Amino acid sequence: MKIKNIIVTFVSALAILFSTSVVSLAKVVGDKIILGAAISLTGKYSSNGVHTQNGYNMAVDRINEMGGIKVGGKTYKFDIIYYDDESNPKRAAQLAERLISQDGVEFMLGPYSSGLTKAIAPVTEKYGVPMVEANGASRSLFTKGYKYLFAVLAPANLYLDVAIETAVELNGGKGVRIAQAFEQDAFSQDVRLGILDAAERTGSKIIIDDKLPKELNDMAATLAKVKAVKPDVLVVSGHTKGALTAIRQIAEMKVDVPMLAMTHCDAAKLSKQHGKNSQYALCASQWHKTLTYKDDFFKDGMTYAADFEKLFGYDPPYQSAESSAALLVFKDAFERANTFDQKKVRDALADTNMQTFYGNIKFAEGGQNVDKPMVLFQVMCDDAGKCENKVVAPLKWASAELIHPIPKWSER
């Protein structure tokens, strides 16, 4: 793996220092297409920020090694200016302004999380800077009329409705009783709205509708209610920390629930952190390495995962995979536009219709990807305690049989 810049690349720094027209030179310096990104390298989203950066860097190196980007009869390579947004929306917006106004960046990659993407999107829109983002799924991002925002991932309201659909299907088509607890961020609240829609659509009933504490470190009050009222499904969305807290306290309190569905539990590496206590959790995922999508750069999910693990020492969560896919989208759009004119690149992005190792990508008018469904995997462990994530839903696409209901703690 080549050593990547963390704050400012050398070539872009030279452009800023010596150019009398920063904006005209910083977007392309020599044979480099300079992209900008504010990433959460510190703060509560730092773990997923690193996953995002690793995905970006891996794709930059792969594209550069395999011939780069061909525009106007010349060959270019990607480079990225990174700044740490500290998991702070206000800071993210300031850094987007800095990247565009001071560093002269004319093409952006997204940050981690919906909240930070919502902070940056008005800035990139104001300046007409195309942004391909991979980690902002809040559906409110796609109802603002933005013309320069493109998201490779499915919107947040679709993350866990497949869990409710699956529970109802397993219940003979009858509605189920749902308990839910959510972080108060844009992403998790959109996940919640998706559950409310699914409940209404399936004749299900929400019997617990709780907020997770700001620090995501305690959900004992919610779990005590779950033990008392015995719902059919427990849904939790609190990013990585929320997923880890849920598994820890469910095990400590011996909470029995037939189905547990969460967001971000692959990024949290549940089985590595909590071993067999994480078994049977259902995890909403934008991507899984066993899916059969293909492209020319990473071949397929299994190959991508093996290459990623060689570089970074761990199995890639979907946050890394979708971040890599964002670079493939930019490369495709630059080459079809055959220019660095921002408006023409924007138009090429809007016309994207491609398959990557991560999935199909086609953008609706609002900028969301409308061509790739969500999946659920389940943490499954053998008697020796070795755990794997296996795709179990939607049931028609499953590569393993869903274990339902979850065995009671007294029977494990």
Describe what this molecule looks like in 3D.
This protein is an alpha/beta fold and 412 residues long. 39% of the residues lie in helices and 21% in strands. The chain folds into two domains: 10-154 and 290-362, 3-Layer(aba) Sandwich (Rossmann fold); 158-285 and 382-411, 3-Layer(aba) Sandwich (Rossmann fold), CATH 3.40.50.2300. The chain has 13 helices and 18 strands. The strands form five sheets. It has a seven-stranded mixed beta sheet, sandwiched between helices. The chain has a four-stranded mixed beta sheet with strand order 1-2-4-3. α3 (46-65) packs across α12, α4 packs parallel to α5 (114-127) and α12 (318-337) crosses α13 (342-350). The chain starts with 9 loop residues before the first helix and ends in a 19-residue tail after the last strand.
